[in-house]
Structures are given as structure tokens and as C-alpha cells.
Fold each of these.
Amino acid sequence: GQQLNQSPQSMFIQEGEDVSMNCTSSSIFNTWLWYKQDPGEGPVLLIALYKAGELTSNGRLTAQFGITRKDSFLNISASIPSDVGIYFCAGSNLEYGNKLVFGAGTILRVKS
Amino acid sequence: SAVISQKPSRDICQRGTSLTIQCQVDSQVTMMFWYRQQPGQSLTLIATANQGSEATYESGFVIDKFPISRPNLTFSTLTVSNMSPEDSSIYLCSVGQGYEQYFGPGTRLTVT
């Protein structure tokens, strides 16, 4: 089946630092989505990307849809304690009937 | 985005029993999905809940184990049947809006 390789698996950073995580695949995707999941909650959609090369921001978050359509990255600037959580990338394409394929997640821990 | 609620939020069940999880959306939606998230893992799609017809199951999931109902465009249920400890997971419903999906808060199931 289709797989998304998400890295890093976990991060432990200082408050105020910038964070970067990415997802890659051997398949082409039409849509890339980035979610954040807090403990005991469902994933919350942060950013949606629809075009190759697209760069989209949501507050301190910035995500890009890779030119090859096989990758995406998410940046968080000036991290704060509430950024703690698990970040998932997800992609969809016609081959998979536009259903979502999820990455394994990046666990973000912030040292205050 | 749609507001999604799930019941129960958590449960502890005996092996061999069944649990039905409800998902309610505050607006009519065409696409509803059920996911499983095993401890420390990413999300895995169980099935697409189709209104007025049988659900479409992903590889590795069968109707006898995970029967799904979708009586209208705002409600769906997932039953976890004949439970074993391996079924201990978070079960999440989601709704599709365009190419995006929005998730409910999840049901945390522990099977003893």
C-alpha cells in the first residue's frame, strides 16, 4: 500500500526555537494535509495544500507542497509550550480514491 | 468546519463483548469515515460509511468484526464485535469536506 515517511519521529526543542518536519512518499499526491493531535483528542487540521509548490501559512505555521508532489514540510516558528503534541501529515490521490494516507507522526516536546 | 461528537468518549469492556460507538455531525455530510489508532500509532482507515448502502472496508477489516451503520447524512455507528485486548485503541470518525477531513474527539476503548 501507499506509505508516507514522516520525520523526525520525535523532537525535543527549546521554547522559542523553530521546528521543521517533513513527509516524503514514492507516490504522487494531489493534496497534502497537516494535523495536530493533542492527548485525548482527535486530530485537528492545521493546513491544507492543493498545488505543487504551494506555500501556506497559518499563524506561526508554514507548510509547503513539494514541487515533485511527493513531499511536504511543516515549519513552526518560535515554538511555545502549547505546540506540544503529535503532528501528522496526510496525503490523498486518485490512485487511493482520494482517501487519506497518514504518516507515522512527529512527537513534539518543548522544553520551557 | 462541521462539529463532530462521539459517544462514548471512553469505555472499558470485557473480552468477547461488543461496543457500539456513535458519531454525530451538526450538518449533513456525504462522506464519513471510521479510523483506528492503536496505542502510540498513526491512524488507519477502517471503512468509509456510505449513506443508504453497505460500508466500504479497507484491507484487513471485515464487516463481521466492524459492522457500520449510516442511516442518514448526520449520523453513523461503528460496532467493535467480539472484542479482544488487541482491539484496545482509539476509534475516530471523520467527515470529508472537499479534499479535507475533520475528526471527532475519538473513543478510547480498553478491552480487558
Amino acid sequence: GNSVTQMEGPVTLSEEAFLTINCTYTATGYPSLFWYVQYPGEGLQLLLKATKADDKGSNKGFEATYRKETTSFHLEKGSVQVSDSAVYFCALYLMDSSYKLIFGSGTRLLVRP
Amino acid sequence: GAVVSQHPSWVICKSGTSVKIECRSLDFQATTMFWYRQFPKQSLMLMATSNEGSKATYEQGVEKDKFLINHASLTLSTLTVTSAHPEDSSFYICSAIQGGSGNTIYFGEGSWLTVV
């Protein structure tokens, strides 16, 4: 079946540290891949996306590359800020009859000053 | 970017009453919308897929008579929690597909429901 696996959190970093949140997927077909961010008490916001292999999505200093060979879409940021503290969800979307967006379990990031 | 708006953001209702949550796509037409439920510190659980002009498709284990979903127009879907109970208290989030942009899915801000 289709699924998304994320690294468990929480991830605690100091400000300006390098961030990697791992995400791997299993899909029957060619999914689009997304990272969503949820700040405390808020809904989800689209952070970045990639629709085909080798695409790199980027936004607000975050990047993720669609790696078909490793079925991965790891989220990275070179220098995190306190304001990046949030929960990050990796998700895949298949344009099949169901049009479902399948989420990973989420990874909580806490950035300390 | 595309905007999806939910209303209300917060609602408190008495046990046994019904409450309606609206989800609107403000600047695009959405033939398909989704409703999710999120428990504290957990991921989102897809409840149902809402298609304009047709009945919603519910996920396994979701009571369709309790969570009524109506998608009356291309910009509005509603979720009605009927005969609410305290265990229905949760964060409900809707999303909508914007076609023509790689079929990107945008989310509403979410609605906190507390049943007392």
C-alpha cells in the first residue's frame, strides 16, 4: 500500500544548526511529494513540494529533493531559527481515483536560542 | 497562493447538540475537498473525501451519520458533527485541491471543537 514514514521526534536543535528530517515513502505509482508545517495552534501550511523525480522543492530556506531511487524526500535547512519550531509533516499524493493525501506521523522540531 | 478558509476557528457546544464547520476555497474552485481530524500531538486522520454534487466518501471507521458532509458548490464544503459528545472534541481541518498547479492541496486553518 501507500505510506509515508518520518523520523520520530522531537528534534531539538540550537539556533543556526543544520536540520535534516528524514522522510521515505512507499507508493504504487508516481506520487507528488509535499512537506507541510504546522505551527502551534494553527492549521497546516504548504512548505514545499516536488512533483517528479529529481525535482527540488524549496521555500523559506528549506529544501527537499525527490529521490525516486531511494524513495525519499528528506527536508533540510542550513541554519534553523527559533521561529522554525513547529511540527513538520511529509505527505504524498497520488492522482488515482481516490486523490488522497497520505501523511507521515509528523516530526516536532524545537529550536532553542 | 491559493487560500482555503474554515469557519469557525473555535467552537464550544453542549453535548447532544450539532455543530457545523464550513470550508471555503476563496480564490479557486475545488471539485474535491477533504476533511481531516487531528488528535493532540498526532498526525492527521483522513475522515472523508467530499466531491461537489455527490455523496462524500468516508474512510473506514468514520460514522457517516455522525459526521455529515455536504459539498454544495465548487467553493464550499461543510462538516456537521451531529449529536456531539465530548469524545468528538478535536481539531478538524479541511483541504481542497487546486487543479492546474500540479494538483496542489491547500489546507484551511483548522477548527477547534470542544464538546462540554
Amino acid sequence: RKEVEQDPGPFNVPEGATVAFNCTYSNSASQSFFWYRQDCRKEPKLLMSVYSSGNEDGRFTAQLNRASQYISLLIRDSKLSDSATYLCVVNDGDSGYALNFGKGTSLLVTP
Amino acid sequence: DAMVIQNPRYQVTQFGKPVTLSCSQTLNHNVMYWYQQKSSQAPKLLFHYYDKDFNNEADTPDNFQSRRPNTSFCFLDIRSPGLGDAAMYLCATSRDRAWQETQYFGPGTRLLVL
């Protein structure tokens, strides 16, 4: 069973749309959760950490459901520049420090 | 300003010819990681240094080695690259080795094996 699973997409949405990505993780001992953004042929960049209470940063909202081992990312008012791959990342519950990456969800925002 | 720097950005090597990838950081972080990311796959941790302490992942092939001569620099050595080693190699750092620490990634080195 994969540690972190994401719908690979691609998600094709028009500018201004709202889009949601989901992610599930397998290790209930995991304690930290992140969304990274990765542009084509570039390194992953931290988009936001995900906290139990949920958190919002501008157009981006992240939610965590520990009971269901489920993480989500909502992007409102999509911009062309949001086109990228979004990686769900969860720390390894056994080692603590190691990160387990999902394969990513591809988003294409079109004019 | 760049915080995690990787050189070169692109590396071409021949099958079986040793290659070294370089990573440096200006963050003074204790931990440096090396990940391998193949096309359309998630990054996979190869090993990390916690200060001078080297920690290998169980499934990292012996072909991959690493050196950390000082806090700022860390090298990835591939002793005999095979075609299957073609990938993006990502260096990352974190202040400490704890679950709450953020990892910061360098721009990566894309390795091509001919």
C-alpha cells in the first residue's frame, strides 16, 4: 500500500474556477503534513503546511482530517500561474523526519 | 537569494562513468538530504546527513554514496551510473531532524546517462 496517494489528474480548469485536491496517507503516526508545488522540471517548493484546525493562505485553503487520514487543498479563483503539480507530503510516522511524497496532482488552468 | 544551491543543473555522463553532484546551503542547517525523482514519480529519499552522521535508506543501492565535508556542502557520488539512474536529484535541508521541520529544496540536478 502506498504511503501517500493522490489523484494524478490532470485537472483542467478555466481561470477563476475553484478546484480541490485530495490526498490520503496510510501511517496514522504521521504528524506533519504539507502541500508542495512543483513546476515542470523544477524543484518542489513549499506551498503551505497543513494544521489540524485547517489553514488558509490567500486563495489557498488546506484541511486535515486525522480520523480519516485525509488532506485536502482548495484553490479559489484559479490563475494561469497556478498551473503546476501539487504534491501532498506527509512525514514518516516511524522515523519522524523523513518525508513521504505523493506522486502529485497536475493542474492546468486555461484562459 | 538562493539558499540551497545545486551544481551542475544538468549533468550528462556515460554508462559506468563515476559522477559527482554538488549541493551547498547558506542556511546553516544541520540536516542535508538527497532525493531521487524519476519522471512522473514522487521524490524518493536516498540518504541524509544529520550533522556529520550519515543515514542511509534501506533500499538505496550501494552505487550511491555521499560525503559531507562541512556544514555547507554535501556531495552525491554515483560510482557506476546505469541507464536507470537517469533522474532529477534533489538536495534539501532542514534546521533539525524533527517532524515539524520544513525541508527546503534546491533546484535539482538533472542527470542523463548515455
Amino acid sequence: SQTIHQWPATLVQPVGSPLSLECTVEGTSNPNLYWYRQAAGRGLQLLFYSVGIGQISSEVPQNLSASRPQDRQFILSSKKLLLSDSGFYLCAWLKTRDTQYFGPGTRLTVL
Amino acid sequence: DQQVKQNSPSLSVQEGRISILNCDYTNSMFDYFLWYKKYPAEGPTFLISISSIKDKNEDGRFTVFLNKSAKHLSLHIVPSQPGDSAVYFCAASADAGNMLTFGGGTRLMVKP
């Protein structure tokens, strides 16, 4: 069966520090992968998606970036965090047409 | 411009009664719709979906209704249980597939 992992589960970082969040999927190959952010009390905002290794599409211009160094690995990064980057970050993969399955998420607090 | 809207940010229902969560969309290209349930500090869980060729899909206590002419869908939960208390997101996809547009969510509270 397929599973999706995210780490860390929670993270507290100072403003201006770098960020690296990791997402991996098991039990499938070459999945479409997605990064979303849920700000406090808000809906889900698509940040990046990837259809394959090295292929990244950005939906929202900001100080975040994404990379896909391996088939089942998706990384969300920032060189310098802002207060507004605080939120709940979710990774998802496309299991069937249109149906995405989500990981457990990472709670990021920027102080 | 929000293409998928959930106009009720919250809903409170008594245990055992019906919960009805609503969702409206504006993009006529959307042809596949999903509902997700999300507990705090967890990832959303896929609940149920419906294709535009149908107007109803049922799975246990959950039923999704689609009214294409009104560009409206709803999720019915019968009977509601306290464990159903969560935030519910509707999402939609166009024919290009694999990209979902989410609504802002509705927080459902089921009171015992």
C-alpha cells in the first residue's frame, strides 16, 4: 500500500532562518506531488506541484522554493523565513485522477 | 477570484441529526468534485467524490449531491456523530485533471 510521510511534524524557527521540509511517498513510482499551505483559519493554498524529477511548477510567487531530487521525494525550502510563512504545510500525492492524498503535515511557527 | 466557495465558515448540529455542508463553484470546466475532512494538526482525509456525469454519490453515512445548473454541491452526513466534528473542504478539478481547487472550509461541530 502507498503511504506518504512528512517531517518534521512541528518546527519553530526564527525570522530569517532557512527552512527545509521533506515529503516522501512509498509504494508508488513517479507520482504527481504537491505542496500546500494552510494559514491559520484559512483554506488550502497550493504552493508547488511536480510531475517528475526536477520538474517544479510554482503557483504562488514567494520566498519559498521546492525541489524534487528523487522520484518519491519532494522538498520545500526557504533561504530566509518571514513571519508570514507560519502555517501548516501539507504534502499530497495524486493517487487516481483528481484524487489527492495528503500527508500528516508540518506545523511551522516563525517567531 | 475564488472559484470554489464554502460560504458557511461554521456549522453546529446535534448528534443524530443531518449535517449539510454546501459548496459553490464558478468555473464551468470543473467536472470532478471531492470532499475532504480535516482534524486539527492532521492532513486532510479524502471522504467522497463525484463526477459531473452523476448527480449523487453515496458512501455509508456520507452523500454528495451535485447540481450542475446551479454550480452547487453539498455533502450530507446522516446521522451526524461527535467524531464528525472537523473542518470539511470541498475541492474541484477541471478536465485537465490532477489540479484541485479548494474551498475555504467549513468547521462542523456535532454536539452530543
